[in-house]
Amino acid sequence: MSREVSAFKVSELYSNEEVYHSLAVGNAGGVRVSIGPSSEVRHIVVFTSIPTARQLAENPYHDRLEGDILIYTGAGRAGNQSVSGANARLAQQQAEKFPIYAFIQMGNRRDRALGNKRWGFLGLLQYLRCYPEHQVDAQGKLRSVWVFEFRVHSSFSELPTGKAHSVMHDLFVNHEDESSTADLEVVEPSSVQHDSSQPDLSLLEPIRRRLLGYEPRQFEHVIHDMLKQSGFDQVEVTRYSQDGGIDINARPGPTAWPLRHLLIQLQAKRWLHTVGRKEVAELRGSLQPHASGCIVTTSHFSRAALIESTVPGKIPITAIDGIELANIIHTMKLGLR
């Protein structure tokens, strides 16, 4: 019989049996809910995995850790999803403040070195937002899914199960000022913001899917190529530093002769998670004097980010989301690497 764990340690490995015995949840599924006697949620356990290069090539929407943000596609791998069942329970955390434990698979059953302890404890998850988006499945069919974003909290080295509720409540209190309501709200992608027509997602999402398959540094070079094909001159990818600075410098080409001295400085974010107000403000602070700024992402922007990008009295920042980027590639017939 598996031992019961009284405290989970960040980065330590556990067996599936230890997790479900200790936390009184089911023994299968990516989202497992513990329900109390009054039908209240006691806690939730989320299981995810580190995608291999092959998995990312086959499914670039795979759950990912990007910094301290976990991007998690809702339960249900085929057909359209809805916010019901386990998916709906995840969103309840914002109001009820119950703990969400996160475990990440560190190897498969064939890895004898790990044995049955294959699940590393990531920490506690704090719900940030969920939103619908369209994805292309393995058969090339478009489907509607729900994407969840969580902040991963792992500053504690050990989490006693009896203290998880108080720790989770404190985490919400200590981080409640980090994101405004507008920053938690995702603006649905609109690739044709200056056009009255609706984007044809059956054409554009496969392009975004391909963009998501690039590594971040590769994505910067893809944007470099797009700028060159679009007529920009003196396009330069800066040194890769992962410090949130400028990724690409470019100047308009001869066809835009009145603007030939204008410097465009871009950030290229091959992200699954949402670009928020903070990223827009930080880019503006990194710009050279008199330069123009642009953030290009494969994901989405929060409403607060878009408000920040055009706030009066400040340098405007152009915001290009994943679907708009795909539309540019499609309509201008730009080639991809």
Protein architecture, described:
By secondary structure, this protein is an alpha+beta fold. The chain folds into two domains: 7-178, PUA domain-like (Roll); 201-331, Trna Endonuclease, Chain: A, domain 1, CATH 3.40.1350.10. The chain has helices at residues 16-23, 53-58, 86-96, 164-174, 181-184, 201-212, 216-229, 277-286, 303-309, 322-331; strands at residues 7-9, 13-15, 31-35, 41-49, 64-66, 69-73, 100-105, 117-136, 142-153, 158-160, 232-237, 248-252, 264-269, 292-297, 317-320. Strands 2, 3, 4, 5, 6, 7, 8 and 9 form an eight-stranded mixed beta sheet that branches. It has a five-stranded mixed beta sheet with strand order 11-12-13-14-15, sandwiched between helices. Strand 14 (292-297), helix 9 and strand 15 (317-320) form a beta-alpha-beta unit. Helix 6 (201-212) packs across helix 10 and helix 8 (277-286) packs parallel to helix 9. It is elongated.
SSE inventory with pairings:
Elements: E1 7-9, E2 13-15, H1 16-23, E3 31-35, E4 41-49, H2 53-58, E5 64-66, E6 69-73, H3 86-96, E7 100-105, E8 117-136, E9 142-153, E10 158-160, H4 164-174, H5 181-184, H6 201-212, H7 216-229, E11 232-237, E12 248-252, E13 264-269, H8 277-286, E14 292-297, H9 303-309, E15 317-320, H10 322-331
Parallel strand pairs: 4-7, 13-14, 14-15
Antiparallel strand pairs: 1-10, 2-8, 3-4, 5-6, 6-9, 7-8, 8-9, 11-12, 12-13
Helix pairs in contact: 6-10, 8-9
